[in-house]
Design a protein that fits this description.
By secondary structure, the chain is an alpha/beta fold. The protein is 35% helix and 16% strand. It has ten helices and eight strands. A six-stranded parallel sheet has the order 3-2-1-6-7-8, sandwiched between helices. Helix 1 crosses helix 10 and helix 6 runs parallel beside helix 10. The two termini are 14 Å apart. 38% of the residues are buried.
C-alpha cells in the first residue's frame, strides 16, 4: 500500500527533489555513525568521538590521526546501490530535478545523477589549505592508504579533503542552492537521514510543495509533517517503487 501510494505521488509530480543522508549509502558498504562497525568505533580506537576527529581544529593539530581515521572509514571501495540507480532513472524520466546529499562518497554521480548538490563536499577531492592548489586525487589517496599525510607538491602545505568539517561553514552558495531547489519542488523525498545534522536538516522547512515523503528506518522530527512515512531501507523501497512506474 505504501509503495503504491509513493508511486502515485511520483506519477503526479514533475519537480521532485531528493534529500538524502547516510542511510542511502550504507547499503553500498559505506559506514554510518551509529551502526556496530560505524564511525563511533573511533571512541574505542582513538579515545575521542568522530565529531572531534572530523573537526577543523583537530585536523590541523593531529593530521596523522585524522588521516589514519580517514583511511579506515572514507577510503573504501563502494558501488552505487538500488537507491542511487533508481534516482538516476527518475531523473531520466524527467521526474527528479535535484539530488541534495549530506554524503561525501560521490556515489550519486558515479551512478549517473547529473544534478547533485553535495552539502558537505566530496571525500575524494583534495586541495592545499595553504596555496589552494588541487592535486591528483588518486595520488593523494595512495599516500593516505600508505599511512602518510599528503602534502602539497607546490608549497609543501597540508592537503585537505574538500569536505565540510565540524567547526566549518558550508561552502559558499550551497545553502542558497539547496533551499531554492527545495522551495520550488512540488514533491520532496527525504531518505536515509534522521534529519539531526544542522544546518542541513533545517532546509526541509522551506518546502512548500504538494507532497513530502520520509523514507527512514527510524523516526525523524519531521514525521508528523509528512504525507507519507515509510520505515524501511531506502534501497528496498526504491527497488519496489520503480517496478510500479
Amino acid at each position: 500500500m505504501e509503495i503504491t501510494r509513493l508511486a502515485e505521488m511520483i506519477k503526479e509530480c514533475n519537480n521532485i527533489v531528493f534529500f538524502g543522508g547516510a542511510g542511502v549509502s550504507t547499503e553500498s558498504g559505506v559506514k554510518d555513525y551509529r551502526s556496530k562497525d560505524g564511525l563511533y568505533n573511533a571512541v574505542k580506537d582513538y579515545g575521542v568521538s568522530p565529531e572531534v576527529i572530523l573537526s577543523h581544529s583537530f585536523f590541523f593539530q593531529n593530521p596523522e590521526v585524522f588521516y589514519d581515521f580517514y583511511r579506515k572509514y572514507f577510503i573504501i571501495e563502494a558501488e552505487p546501490n538500488n537507491a542511487h540507480k533508481a534516482l538516476v532513472k527518475l531523473e531520466e524520466m524527467g521526474k527528479l530535478k535535484t539530488v541534495i546529499t549530506q554524503n561525501i562518497d560521490g556515489l550519486h554521480q558515479r551512478a549517473g545523477s547529473k544534478n547533485v548538490i553535495e552539502l558537505h563536499g566530496n571525500a575524494s577531492e583534495f586541495n592545499c589549505y595553504a596555496c589552494g592548489k588541487t592535486e591528483d586525487a588518486s595520488k593523494v589517496i595512495e599516500i593516505i592508504k600508505s599511512g602518510g599525510v599528503p602534502k602539497c607538491r607546490h608549497c609543501k602545505g597540508l592537503m585537505k579533503p574538500k569536505v565540510v568539517l565540524y567547526e566549518e561553514p558550508l561552502y559558499d552558495g550551497v545553502t542558497e542552492n539547496a533551499v531554492k531547489n527545495i522551495a520550488n519542488a512540488d514533491m520532496l523525498v527525504v531518505g536515509g537521514t534522521s534529519l539531526a545534522v544542522y544546518p542541513a536538516a533545517s532546509f526541509v522547512r522551506y518546502f512548500r510543495g504538494k507532497y513530502i515523503v520520509i523514507i527512514n528506518k527510524t523516526e525523524t522530527e519531521y514525521d508528523n509533517n509528512a504525507d507519507l512515512v515509510i520505515r524501511e531501507s531506502i534501497g528496498k523501497v526504491f527497488g519496489k517503487v520503480m517496478k510500479e512506474l
